[in-house]
């Protein structure tokens, strides 16, 4: 049994950590911080947690208290983990950061996309990008994990077999992605109101989105050539879910694409390659840590279409964070992540 | 470990049984029947079950195979359990019927509401109405359980403390109920299409609904006087959830209503009385077996308003069925029903 | 052709006035005010208005400019019309107030519910409550109209035939109402986010809601006895629409209720009594000024159930405001309000 | 004033014709046919039409009665217009076919995609493809119009300026399209239930969709080279709306793309080029005949991204059909199509 803390627990990734960890037999949540809600019990804010966390209350962030934990999750806006991670690591506490703070290896690029200096460049070398399907061995011994973003998870897992096999042109990739509204967080914004966002579909960030450099870096790690990626995210009228539709151009006769995907992911506990011809639905992973993938080659032509779905709050955030924790502490990789998706 | 079968597994209560039982450490689903889908693997129909039931397939109903089970759930239209329950019971198999077949103690009344003769009146005396908050001790030794309907569960749990205490007039009850569309089942009906049922609200069955006699019978069991109930169900544009808004007229000075409810349900694992002044949301029980209740007395007047929410597929069907099974087989009442609701 | 202004045009009732008035052949919108958005073109904020109002921009409120209009609509929070209406009326400009400022005839009661002194009690005597089905003749000559609230419109139109005919007990009324989320306005509140409000149902204000005294006053005007009303509003996961389910107790043998309703509303252009046995859907009035009503008497008992649906932004606000304007200026009552509801 | 008939009026495009034509001052709907609903009044099936079509009832299809009309709309499954169009044309009745029957110029290709022989190849030469932005002059004198499909309309209008100007490679086009569920029609299919299709996103037809050859033909008409198009449609949890996200590769320095689009559509009444940097929302055209378009060139690279939104039932079907009728009969092109979109 280990003790963990959560920094910034009032957002959707924070409450999702609590929901999932309530089912984890080896983890006890001992602290959860929020400046704005200090003193409030988590079950008063999230009634679904009544009966599961009847005494846990939000507290002011306190590095000493957090430093007594075995691990601390950051479910915070960018910049917060920069400020605290170093001290926690020095105390021997492992850090699992769900924010963007340690995802980009290049501090300058981070600064350009986030419009502020990088707050902890000295930790970048040790940070491990927490995509188990790419970096499982490093994760096992890591002290500091950068949990991948939601879009980057769906996109990277979809392209991985094709790029590793060198079958498609990495300079001509198009990722058309659709996300539920929890991807925009729990902030009170007019554009996220039900009255504004339901019964409608729109793209956003077509000119450039902060997940673009992260995805580019990840795809670059899969093969040696420069990556050219067009990434257009869309806001979809649903609570959870990401659907990535991934286009790429074949550079060689690919053989059996279905077999390629099945073999690549044969031993991956949380990637499910659907039968040939499938169209995965986001609801098939609602509340669940699986990424379901299907691969198509329309009209046997030069374009490969990969369909990749995840729950943005689970495999795209809190579930993947727990998968990382399981690897770091030697637990079964499935622990706390067993429940089937809620469908219907 | 016990072996169970499910008759009629293609509907929403069937797949919900599979979803929940996937997490039950003492139950193994050995058979699931469907005439129309015989031979199809359940995970091909419900991709959320991939990785949980990779070999289980629908089979033709077969009384002999089912009779080898410790328990059989009926997730069928009315009439089916009438035909099969007797033979199963004779084989020593316990029967948990999610349909309406054994809910009404009066076979004639059943016939009037369901427009057909009752198929197994000889079993009515032994059937136990599976509302643990009313009949826990009988359930423990029952062989045949009639799982309450979804509306009846929400309505009865909301009125129970008031009627048992004799505080309200049982002849003037009004239950205004709102249900998500899974309450209408998985049948392909135009009125249940997203294009028809979303962005809209409507009542139905204002002139009389099949759940009315069941509710009336249950409320009658709580106190000695005749029950007069107006019950109006409404179709709500959401997948899951029932919200019952229950009106009653005080016949005496009630004292502390909040305390009354809290005390009545103090030891109930799946009824949560919310703090005074609360308005429970259906999403706080999405995927979960809890009934959350709040009690209000507007302007300190003579009308009491009880707000009672459940997930129609869980506490209103499959979850309650498993709660009954746990009681019947001596398992912890929570077993397989531990996960917090999915929120957001 | 008359010229009108709109004060406070950034909210949902403001944009709905613009949408409807774009089709009105006798009205030209010459000014629309908003402190926060002054200088912004309305079609930049509301792209559905592109091509309809290509030059109209929000301006600072200016009593002189507004005083040059034939009529001014207030689509503002409470208190604003108090401050400006008197000056406009003195200039000969007619005022149609969509806020609550002039709905209650009793200034003290207004102060209690809105927690501030009434800002224009001297205008109360002249203000006309703009429910045409009750006050058509007075509206025609009014200078100051208090447009009814959304819930009050649905509830009053539903009870009107019963109370006028003296058939039900006015001291035992129960109005269970369900509203889409635009009823909560365009403010950026967490509870109104799609991620919070969709896939869920909840009551609110069960202990007392500001529309209660307005409804009570209106029902009191229909018959001579004291009104006892329990009013419970619910938030429903849809954009527009109110469904009022209205319960009352018969005090006499009612005769033909269907005929009673049909006769009372035979000449009302915007009240549609549905055929006996109907259950009106809110979507049948989406974007439209009609109130559709059905009346039921379950099991031929003592309880009458009236189902009354409106679009909260149209008959519940901006459409009814235009209906009032049509009456005040001698236009055809339908003018600008002809389009059928958007369905599906 | 002209008289029109509608063949197959029970589906969504049929009722949408009725909704829009209720506002058309020069059109009277004299007949609407449906075998399954013959005798039923349209306002009994679609209560939003109460007060607009109080006597019109569905009738059995009757070529003689239809032949007395000035124009007949076909809102039917494919194959029906093949059988009837010839006879109507011979009677001097103009035919506006919303189905796919006359969209493809090549009867053999039609047969391949629709798995049946083409029923009226002799009419293909005279049929005019009813996309006014491409074929306005031909439409004005046409007797037989093939109204474009919903996806084809959104995709063609988005690519048109780029292809006409020869700026992009027509052999490498990718159209990622998202549609509301009315695109699947009013048939009672399990996959279209609210309980199945809401809170989820999925692609379909990734291997080939019937709109593909129609789009290919249209794009081919815009420029001289062979078209290579990958088209992936997605089902989106909303009632109405298509969002097409269109990718293409520049073959030359394009100059000012924004100006190119604005100039191409400067005189088009139903194409709205949004300001540079915009992301059009489908709700901005809900119920409205406009196509709103934005053009992006991410990072000033070689990929152009066009965002194109329509209401699938209006510009994607019934509204465009009426736009064609207006052109054919010399009415103002806007007639009956003036109302702003319903937003929120």
TrEMBL record, chains A, B, C, D:
UniProt entry keywords in alphabetical sequence: Amino-acid biosynthesis, Arginine biosynthesis, Cytoplasm, NADP, Oxidoreductase
Pathway participation: Amino-acid biosynthesis; L-arginine biosynthesis; N(2)-acetyl-L-ornithine from L-glutamate: step 3/4
**EC numbers, comma separated:** 1.2.1.38
Domain (Semialdehyde dehydrogenase NAD-binding): residue spans on this chain: 3-142
The record ties this protein, via Pfam families, to: Semialdhyde_dh (PF01118), Semialdhyde_dhC_1 (PF22698)
Q: Where in the cell is it found?
A: Cytoplasm
Q: What is its main location?
A: cytoplasm
According to the UniProt entry, the coiled-coil residues are none
Name the catalysed reactions.
N-acetyl-L-glutamate 5-semialdehyde + phosphate + NADP(+) = N-acetyl-L-glutamyl 5-phosphate + NADPH + H(+)
- Please give the superkingdom of this protein's source: Bacteria
Keyword Plastid assigned: no
Active site, renumbered? 150
GO MF entries: N-acetyl-gamma-glutamyl-phosphate reductase activity
Query: Which InterPro entries does the entry link to?
Result: AGPR (IPR050085), AGPR_dimerisation_dom (IPR058924), AGPR_type-1 (IPR000706), NAD(P)-bd_dom_sf (IPR036291), Semialdehyde_DH_NAD-bd (IPR000534)
PANTHER family linked to this entry: N-ACETYL-GAMMA-GLUTAMYL-PHOSPHATE REDUCTASE, CHLOROPLASTIC-RELATED, N-ACETYL-GAMMA-GLUTAMYL-PHOSPHATE REDUCTASE, CHLOROPLASTIC-RELATED-RELATED
What family does the Swiss-Prot or TrEMBL record give for this protein?
Answer: Belongs to the NAGSA dehydrogenase family. Type 1 subfamily.
What is the purpose of this protein?
A: Catalyzes the NADPH-dependent reduction of N-acetyl-5-glutamyl phosphate to yield N-acetyl-L-glutamate 5-semialdehyde.
- Which protein, by its recorded name, is this? N-acetyl-gamma-glutamyl-phosphate reductase
Q: What is the species of this protein?
A: Vreelandella lionensis
Lineage, opening ranks? Bacteria, Pseudomonadati, Pseudomonadota, Gammaproteobacteria, Oceanospirillales
């Amino acid at each position: 049994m280990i003790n963990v803390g959560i920094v910034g627990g009032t957002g959707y990734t924070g409450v999702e950590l609590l929901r999932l960890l309530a089912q984890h037999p080896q983890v006890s949540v001992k602290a959860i911080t929020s400046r704005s809600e200090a003193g409030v019990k988590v079950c008063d804010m999230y009634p679904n947690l009544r009966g599961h966390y009847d005494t846990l209350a939000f507290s002011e962030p306190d590095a000493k208290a957090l430093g007594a934990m075995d691990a601390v999750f950051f479910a915070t806006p960018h910049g917060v983990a920069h400020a605290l991670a170093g001290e926690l690591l020095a105390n021997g506490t492992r850090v699992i950061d769900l924010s963007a703070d340690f995802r980009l290896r290049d501090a300058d690029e981070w600064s350009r996309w986030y419009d502020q200096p990088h707050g902890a460049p000295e930790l970048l070398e040790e940070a491990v990008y927490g995509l188990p399907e790419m970096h499982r061995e490093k994760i096992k011994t890591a002290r500091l994990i950068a949990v991948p973003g939601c879009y980057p998870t769906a996109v990277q897992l979809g392209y991985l077999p094709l790029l590793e096999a060198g079958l498609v042109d990495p300079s001509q990739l198009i990722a058309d992605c659709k996300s539920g509204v929890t991807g925009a967080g729990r902030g009170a914004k007019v554009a996220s109101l039900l009255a504004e966002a339901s019964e409608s579909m729109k793209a956003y960030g077509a000119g450039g989105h902060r997940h673009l450099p992260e995805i580019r870096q990840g795809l670059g790690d899969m093969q040696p050539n420069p990556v050219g990626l067009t990434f257009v995210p869309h806001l979809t009228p649903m609570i959870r879910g990401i659907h990535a539709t991934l286009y790429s151009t074949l550079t060689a006769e690919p053989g059996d694409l279905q077999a390629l995907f099945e073999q690549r992911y044969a031993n991956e506990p949380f990637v499910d390659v659907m039968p040939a011809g499938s169209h995965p639905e986001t609801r098939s992973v609602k509340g669940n840590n699986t990424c379901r993938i299907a691969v198509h080659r329309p009209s046997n032509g030069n374009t490969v279409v990969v369909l990749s779905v995840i729950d943005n709050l689970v495999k795209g955030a809190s579930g993947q964070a727990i998968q990382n924790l399981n690897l770091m502490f030697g637990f079964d990789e499935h622990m706390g992540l067993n429940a089937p998706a809620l469908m219907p």
